[in-house]
Amino acid sequence: MDLTRRGFLAAAAATAAVGTGPAAATVEATGDAGAAADADLARLTLFGTAQDGAGTDGIMVADVAGGQHLAATLPGRGHGVALSPDGSLAAVTARRPGTFAAAFRPATGEVVARFATPADRHFQGHGAFSRDGRLFLATENAFDIGEGRIGLYDATAGFARVGELPCYGVGPHEMVRVDGRDALVVAVGGIRTHPATGRSGLNTDVMRPLVAVVDASSGERLAEHRAPAELHQLSLRHLAVRRDGYTAVVGRWEGHPLERPPLILAGSLQAGLRPVVLPEEAAERLANYTGAVCFDGGGRYMAVSAPRGNVCAVLALDDEGTPVLRRLLDIPDVCGLAPGPGEGEVFLTSGRGQLYLYRADEDRLEELSGPSARLSHWDNHLTTWAAEPAAG
Question: Contact at 8 Å (CB) between 49 and 102?
């Protein structure tokens, strides 16, 4: 099949609306004025992994007033941070093929447990807590047999490993729990790797990427959505799920580098996921590689970062859930994304240390980080935590 942008557009014209939109929003440097005055924003703390100016890896803590610091060190590059349902705990796992993880209290940054995978497993970068908060579940690689797994760690017993579940594919990456349920939605990238060969893919010609919905208690496969056959080399890596089940999944292209296939699948977990075809300029800017995806605080916008293209695409969702490109935000090495507290609000981080807030309804991009932040380097992902409002 023709995987140029024109070829795929002709084949998939009925699956997504295509918009153009202006090329970039104006950046406003706000520091501790502006956004920090908003009460909802001021309650937020943002977490991610990062490296400070001295080259130390750790858990980065930031606020909307521009302050950020490493709250705890890690033995190497971390990746995703997951919050427990009540917000009292968080856990971070290593970037693949790392084997370390840490649990900490978001309110203080205090590390309460450090744990690791068994010798024949390594983390795949992401995890999620069970609905009752008793288990932390992490995507893993059972590398000797070439299968993905979901490792189970008991948060009430020092995060001891107590079992595992299947994920029904090879190379799982991001996993989120559906609100109000113990169902896990897992982006399964389809790439087999082994620590002996680092991060190199061993099966890119015969990949089978998919999205699996797995019961967190039994491991039962509740649903499965495969990428179209012509996109079998689209490694599905990251996803976001709205409360109504509408899902966006993004990936990176492992096929011919001159092809420009869709990198986004979107739709409901019931009806299925369909490719989202972007205009030619946007497809070129994404450079066949996405880093993260999230919805805004109101669920009306979708943000997709592309660190290699130094751009974040913002798409607006119509009443039927069809994504239409609204804006390309030019941000060097942008990757981390997290919803803001309000409609149209999305936080973004860059590998150059900056923290931004984009307000889609106003089409305004604000830099929140202060000058000292540029000595540090945010890693790939971002998580928001809200302190409870003061009594009275």
Answer: no
- CA atoms of 244 and 76, how far apart (whole Å): 36
Q: What are the pLDDT digits (tens) for 13-56?
A: 333 333 334 344 545 544 443 444 467 788 899 999 999 989 99
CB under 8 A, 24+ apart: contacts of 104-107: 104/59, 104/71, 104/72, 106/45, 106/47, 106/385, 107/387
Beta bridge partners of 114: 102
Strand 68-73 and strand 246-253: the pairing is unpaired
Structural contact between residues 129 and 82, judged by C-beta atoms closer than 8 angstroms: yes
- CA 3 to chain centroid: 25
- Specify the amino acid at residue 76: G
Mark 66-91 as b/e (b = at least 16 C-beta within 10 Å). bbbbbbeebeebbbbbbbbeeeebbb
Buried b (16+ CB within 10 A) or exposed e, 8-38: bbebbeebbbbbebeeebebeebbeebbbeb
Neighbours of 241 (CB within 10 A): 20
Nearest one of 183, 191, 271 to 225, comparing CA atoms: 271
Judged by DSSP in three states, 140 sits in: strand
What φ, ψ does residue 39 adopt, rounded to 5°? Answer: -65, -40
At 182-241, the pLDDT tens digits run 999 999 999 999 998 888 888 999 999 999 999 999 999 999 999 999 999 999 999 999
Mind giving me the DSSP string for 70-110?
Answer: EEEE-SS-EEEEEE-TTSS-EEEEESTT--EEEEE-TTT--
Residue 245 in contact with residue 268, Cβ under 8 Å?
Answer: yes
List Cβ neighbours of 8 (8 Å cut-off, separation of 6 or more): 1, 2, 230, 260, 261, 262, 275, 277
User: Residue 28, SS3?
Assistant: strand
Instruction: Kindly state the DSSP code that residue 289 receives in the 8-state scheme.
Output: B
pLDDT, tens only, 104-155:
999 999 999 999 999 999 999 999 999 999 999 999 999 999 999 999 999 9
d(CA 378, CA 387) in angstroms, rounded, equals 22
Strands 68-73 and 234-241, bridge-based pairing? unpaired
